[in-house]
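User: Here's a protein and a ligand (2-acetamido-2-deoxy-beta-D-glucopyranose). What would the complex look like?
Assistant: Let me lay out the input and then the predicted complex.
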Amino acid sequence: MSAPVAKSLTYKELPPLSLMPTPLLLRSYLITSILSSPRLLKLSMPLLNIIANSPSRFLNPDKNPAIGFLVRKIIYEHFVAGDGEAAVMKTVAQMKQVGFQGVILGYAKEYAADEGEVGNEELDVRRWKEGYEKTMDMIGPGDFMAVKLSGAGASTLCALTNKQQPPPQMWTEMLSLCHAAKAKDIRVWIDAEQQDLQPTIDEWTLLLMREFNRNGQAFMYNTFQAYLKVTPRNILKYLKIAKDEGWTMGIKLVRGAYIATERRDLIHDTIEETHEAYNGIVEDLLRQHYPGLDEKKRYPEVALMLASHNETSIKNAYAIQKSLIEQGKPTIKLEYGQLQGMADEISCGLLQLCQQSGKEAAEKQNEMEDKLRPRAFKCLAWGSTQECLQFLLRRVKENGDAVSRTGAWVMGFRSEIWRRMKASFGAD
Ligand SMILES: Cc1cc2nc3c(=O)[nH]c(=O)nc-3n(C[C@H](O)[C@H](O)[C@H](O)COP(=O)(O)OP(=O)(O)OC[C@H]3O[C@@H](n4cnc5c(N)ncnc54)[C@H](O)[C@@H]3O)c2cc1C
Ligand SMILES: *[C@@H]1O[C@H](CO)[C@@H](O)[C@H](O)[C@H]1NC(C)=O
């Protein structure tokens, strides 16, 4: 009997997980199995909820060693890069060793209004800024830093909600963070959040793109959520501004993560419509004929980060871009991002493509082969166990919501473990 090869992407020969170090493979298998079991999830979700939302010191994993150990071993280490420089840099190095083009690193701490020093604006902003300064110290040229604007404290949150200008102190720090990142050749993306904040986040990010995305380079990226009905029009609006003003638009495209709490009428009625919107926007951007833009005039410069775990979307995008490049047609810069602890099979499939075409490129010195090499990034979060709890809660929930998908990932891990066992016995 031959080893069941993981349900794999069609464009490669080796099973995708073959690049993953064995200890990581085993841990991922274990955790993903737990998270894709409705019964185990039913037991652990309420517990995690209590730990995440209790003000009690006793339940704070940073203060209670027993709880800290449990949360750490079970989910933290799977989804989070680490709590400080040593641990995070080890994870980053591991990702690059596996073959990722780079990482996207975000600071997981979120602003919570009940944090104690309510209204101490200066302290909030300073903590927020220091978190991102540390983030930048842990990554290097070519990497991304992921920034959550709402994390900057009460006055920022208030300005976002009320569609105002950014608070001066916070904005000064934001600009200085961006300048520092640019000096280190680190790109910055701004996360998309709930709809009561997002229109203002878009406007503030426009200010940043306008300032930093000159000379044909996308340095700042804004996030667009394809599940919103308004998104195609919204992208068009910014494309027009970018074109008129002559800067490059950085687009990170996601489906959207706030469906549980969002006003439902803003979101596509069915998930199929969201899929259609997502894939449609990708195709229009790649082909450079975005509906509403005059094709005969010069097209705006765009760079696209496809932030998704959906295999169909990723394969489609790659296929479209490949055919455009092979036909010598113009297209845009395309990169891929997936979250740590999720979609390892898909990430690794992309990496294999990288390696395959990388080799060919070295042999043929062919510029086209290099262009065809997909650039895959792993998106990591860092922070203490306590700081990461809200982030972890969302990841656990997301995995539980998509049991059919995580189930497929479990099968993938299982067959790769099986393949390795057989190979090691065969070698004896
Ligand atoms: C690197 C990275 C960065 C991200 N950054 C952000 C961010 O800044 N902001 C943000 O909001 N999200 C962000 N996300 C999360 C993202 O929005 C998705 O929640 C997540 O990635 C799942 O979508 P998918 O494309 O991976 O795959 P799929 O599994 O194909 O997406 C399906 C998901 O779409 C959702 N959905 C969308 N529309 C509908 C609908 N009409 N009906 C029912 N369900 C619907 C469901 O929750 C479902 O689980 C990020 C994801 C990645 C990988
Ligand atoms: C991925 O997207 C496609 C449409 O592009 C959809 O049919 C499929 O169900 C999605 N996969 C998952 C696992 O959500």
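Summary: The beta strands are 80-82, 102-107, 144-147, 187-190, 220-225, 249-254, 302-307, 333-339, 375-382.
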